[in-house]
Write a structure and sequence with these properties.
alpha/beta, 3-stranded parallel β-sheet, 17% strand, globular
């Protein structure tokens, strides 16, 4: 099975409370002016269960970027981010 990763796609793992950090990262990718996509989970989690959607999006990404902030350290959020990191590692 061949996976076509064009454009390059990055999965951005972060706490949804970190709007300011997320906006900076999004703007930085726009400034790269390259053939990149940045996937933000909270912007498109419709149509399937969370775990299935995250797994599919991770498998369709070249890399995972993680913003580990104080907000990301909160238990509920850290569990989701840890899942995303583990899935990406596999």
């Amino acid at each position: 099975m061949s996976i076509n990763w064009t454009p390059e796609r990055f999965f951005y793992s972060h706490a949804s409370k970190d709007h300011s950090v997320t906006n900076i990262v999004s703007e930085a990718f726009i400034m790269l002016d390259g053939n990149y996509e940045l996937y933000f989970a909270e912007r498109s989690l419709v149509g399937s269960p969370l775990i299935h959607k995250l797994k599919a999006e991770l498998l369709n990404s070249n890399a995972l970027l993680c913003a580990w902030t104080d907000n990301a350290s909160i238990l509920e959020t850290s569990q989701i981010i840890s899942f995303e990191l583990g899935m990406a590692f596999q």
